[in-house]
Design a protein that fits this description.
With 188 residues, this protein is an alpha+beta fold. Helix content is 59%, strand content 15%.
C-alpha cells in the first residue's frame, strides 16, 4: 500500500500544470541531493502557480516520499513506471517522473548512503581455545575458554574471552540472525 502522502499527491496532480509539476520535480531532486528548502524559498517557487500552499506541500511531500521509497528499496525504473501506473498517476506525467528518477537514481542512492551513520564492521577474526589448568583456588580445573580477536574496518582491534557455554550461545544467535535475514530477503 502506498503512503498517504503519495495518494494525496495523485489527487493534486489532476489540477497541476506541466510547468508546476516540472518545478516540483526539480525541487524534490535538489532536496534529495541535500539542498535546503526553507519556507520562503518554497513560497516563492509556488507563488505564481495554480496551487495553494497546502496543495503545493501535498504535491512536494508525495513526490518526495515516492522517490525516497523507490531509492530505499532500489526499485528498477521499469518497475517504478509500472507502480506509478498502478497508483493512478496521470499518464502524461508517468514518463516524466520515470525519466527524472532514472536520470538521477544512481546519484540519489549514493547521496542517501553517504549520509547514513555506519558502525565499523568485522574485517578479520581470529580465535583460539585456551585451557586453564589450575587457578589460585583449585589445584586442577581444566576449564576451556575461547579467546577471540576481531579486527574492525576502522582499524581497531577488539579482544575478548568467553567460556564454552557463551561461545555456543554466540554461535546459535549468529546462525539464527543469518537465517532470519535470509527469510526476510526471500519475502522481499
Amino acid at each position: 500500500t502506498p503512503p498517504a502522502e503519495v495518494k494525496k499527491a495523485v489527487s493534486v496532480l489532476s489540477k497541476t500544470t506541466p510547468e508546476t509539476f516540472q518545478k516540483t520535480l526539480v525541487l524534490v531532486v535538489n532536496y534529495l541531493h541535500g539542498s535546503e528548502i526553507d519556507s520562503d524559498l518554497f513560497t516563492k517557487e509556488y507563488a505564481e502557480t495554480e496551487l495553494d500552499r497546502s496543495s503545493a506541500i501535498a504535491l512536494f511531500t508525495g513526490i518526495y516520499s515516492l522517490f525516497r521509497l523507490a531509492i530505499r528499496k532500489r526499485v528498477k525504473p521499469s518497475k517504478f513506471k509500472h507502480d506509478l501506473a498502478e497508483l493512478r498517476f496521470p499518464a502524461s506525467m508517468i514518463d516524466e517522473i520515470t525519466e527524472t528518477f532514472k536520470s538521477c537514481q544512481h546519484e540519489l542512492e549514493e547521496a542517501a548512503t553517504d549520509s547514513v551513520i555506519r558502525f565499523p564492521t568485522v574485517e578479520d577474526i581470529k580465535w583460539r581455545v585456551d585451557i586453564n589448568i589450575s587457578s589460585s583456588s583449585t589445584a586442577l580445573s581444566l576449564r576451556p575458554s575461547v579467546l577471540m580477536r576481531m579486527k574492525l574496518t576502522n582499524n581497531t582491534t577488539q579482544q575478548f574471552e568467553m567460556n564454552i557455554f557463551r561461545f555456543h550461545q554466540l554461535r546459535y544467535y549468529v546462525a539464527k540472525t543469518l537465517k532470519d535475514m535470509q527469510d526476510i530477503e526471500q519475502l522481499a
